[in-house]
Amino acid sequence: MTAPTNPTVPPAPLLPLAEDWDRALCIVAHPDDMEFGAAAAVARWTGQGKSVAYCMVTSGEAGIDAMPPDRCREVREAEQVESARIVGVEAVEFLGQPDGVVEYGVPLRRLLTEVVRRHRPEVVVTGNFRETWGGRNLNQADHIAVGRAVVDAVRDAGNRWVFPEQLGDALEPWGGVREVWAFGSPQA
Ligand SMILES: [Zn+2]
Question: Which residue in 116, 124, 131, 132 is a FRET match for 184, CA 20 to 30 A apart?
Fold first, then answer.
């Protein structure tokens, strides 16, 4: 048998993103995902006067081999808050899910739906949730779980019959997200 041809497809040309919006919410798995992914774009947007908020699903506490999780959590949360401040983001929240073992499923969708309903963004940014980065490098499990749940939660947030226990005086359904953008993705 002959070897299979190289399955790597060249990336599609990059297209400008819409900038006629006011509020974005970035939901990612770990502190530093935004810095590796889209923080420069965030700096551009906040420089235009837009409001951008960050939501970290975990605190990245399992990310440094030589540092125990309790200490690592403190360090990485502080680094994230400072990194956000530098690009004009004041609102950073940490959902406290367990780093490294985030599971895709209804509980994660419920958690993220509440965040979307509370922030009422027009644009949601997340990270690559495909199996690879476009070549042979496998993606990390938390990224895949979180990104998939973000896409679902954006839809769930607009449906009053999904997670209705969240709705009441303070929260209403939010169907105003125009687009979800996934940075670093071979199929953004
Ligand atoms: Zn990450």
Answer: 116
Find the 45 Cα to ligand 1 centroid distance in Å.
22
CB 146 within 8 A of CB 29: yes
Give 61 Cα–ligand 1 centroid separation in angstroms.
11
Provide the mean pLDDT of the chain: 94
Q: pLDDT, tens digit, for every residue of 125-175?
A: 999 999 999 888 999 999 999 999 999 999 999 999 999 999 998 899 999
- Distance between CA atoms of 89 and 107, rounded to whole angstroms? 27
Cα–ligand 1 centroid distance for 141 (angstroms): 9
Instruction: Indicate whether this model's pTM tops 0.85.
Output: yes
Q: How does residue 3 score in pLDDT terms, banded at 50, 70 and 90? A: very low
Closest CA to 116 of 92, 150, 160, 81: 150
DSSP character for 37?
H
Compute the distance from residue 148 Cα to the ligand 1 centre, in Å: 14
Is 152 strand, coil or helix?
A: helix
Alpha carbon of 30 to ligand 1 centroid (Å): 5
Structural domains counted in the chain: 1
Indicate which CATH number applies to the domain containing 159: 3.40.50.10320
- Domain hosting 128: range is 23-183
The reply to whether 8 falls in a domain is no
